[in-house]
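Can you give me the bound-state structure? Components:
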Amino acid sequence: MNYAGDVAALLRKDLLLELRAKETLPAMAIFVLAALTVFHFALPSGSSDLAADGLLWIAILFTALLGLSRAFVAEREQGVLDGLVMSPCDRSAIWLAKSLSALTFLVLVEAIALPAFSVFFAPVSLTTVAAVALADVGLCTVGTLLAAMAVASRTRELLLPLLFLPLALPIVVGGVGASVTANGGRYLGFLLVYDLVFAIICWASFEYVVAE
Amino acid sequence: MSSRNSWLSLALMAAAIALVAFYAPEDANQGLSQKIFYFHVPIALTAYACFGWGAWKALRYLWRREEHYDLESYVAIHLGVIFGAMTLLTGSIWAKISWGVWWTWSSNQLVLFLVLFLFYSTYFMLRFSVEDGPMRANLSAVYALFGVVLIPISFLAIRLANDFIHPTVFTSAGPQMSGSMFATFCVCLAAFLALAASFYGIELAGKRLDAKLRELRELLSP
Amino acid sequence: MIHARGLSRRFGRKRVLDGVDLDLPESGFLLVTGPNGSGKTTLLRLCAGLLVPTGGSLEIAADRGEIGFLGHDPLVYRGLTALENLELYGRLYRVPERRERSGMLLERFGLWEVRNDRVASYSRGMIQRLSLCRALLHEPRLLLLDEPFNALDTAGAELLQRELAERRGATVVATHDPDRVSRLATARLAFA
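Here's the bound-state model for the whole set.
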């Protein structure tokens, strides 16, 4: 099927570029570890474990933001986005491939971050891991579209966090809720709803973000 | 058309103020300050209406690609942000009068408005950082649609968050309304919606005039 | 192939194209001349579908997959090799036997030796030649070239001239060095 083939080709391209450049992934990994270290100093003694759980989500949020700000950098620097947009492939395939590559990077970094968190602070529950997985999907699908918007603007790096944070707020609520409350299932359900709703709207509207 | 609108909204607003001042009963617990409710909630609902209208125009733009939809969407959202700011202001005043604090996280409505206010403020940052043209209209329209989807999802999130954010100290349940209260409320709501519609018409006309002037100036210059 | 009436495009307050009328038949060759900033690039980007008109009408009798475009940016990934770039575009443009076609084009434009080197290591002239390969990969019915001779060395320029002479299909070339292709032109458009 053409669509799947396009997505696969574009995803392969992104992973190949990162494999060679080795810029984004190491930066994200070091960032998240540095953030966790800073959190240790930001938590006065007597803070509960729950506060640390909350901070985990801050770390994930900003690590995702770091990765997303790099999402379209190759396309932007060489104007390649025009080349992709002019081709007969569906524009939403560009979004899907880019989201999947962002998701891949984020998951790889979390494979380091979550164990580190367990060691630095407190063990991470299964519910938390599930919440992280669901949250990643939401962060990457919405974040990729917003990153494309930011690329079209004059203020790029400045604009992406502004665009991103209000939309990421429900994800943080879902994630923290799943981590700290006893009945985490509700929050996982909420994250699922978020993912579905925003994935559909991103898929449908990406066309208008990259082409006039 | 717009001057008749303006007179209508002025009349409605006068009626609303009169009703609030003289007709609506005083609340047993909160006294006179409770009457801010008659302004705070209608303003909030009007802001929602503006954002919804803006999203509708945005959808029309993406569908039809006619420039005027982009302008209409922008004006509606602009008004929505103004009413949103008024919501936060009146809510804050109400909180101060009722409970002695300028802000409370326990009011779901207020927190939701804060999130939306931030979101739609970013709408303007987005618009100002992209050159006028089809791409700016596209991005604005998509963003406006995201906003309207965000409203229910944020509301749900804030409700859920109450489980693990500290329990509410102040109850902020909307008052149960008696007949006279409901009537006053409806008039106030109608008044603010009419006001918003008037402002919308005026601002739109003003912007269209600006655009025409610019066109003329271009035609006349060599 | 191209039918434009009153075509206009503004950027913010500035009107870059104003009321352009244009008719280009299926195998026509349009030469667009004019100084920098006169609207040549804008016209080509409109024809490529990267921009939409803000006034007037523009009809292109070709789908997205039938248009080849060479602009100011080479539109190739610096981190990939020439072959990998063409493989990607070949896939996106559904080019049949894309591997063979890529190889053939790379050879024709003298890039066969460096086909497995990353584009980051190429000279400007080599990048431009690769970009031409990319634009020609899918045998476009409409070829749009914006200042193609700018970054090309003499050998590359001769290769391009030969390619254009042999070409079947509509072509639009914008250049402020028209002598190279003026004998091929069936129509001209001069911007002030």
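A couple of observations. Chain A has a mean pLDDT of 93. Chain A has one domain: 2-210.
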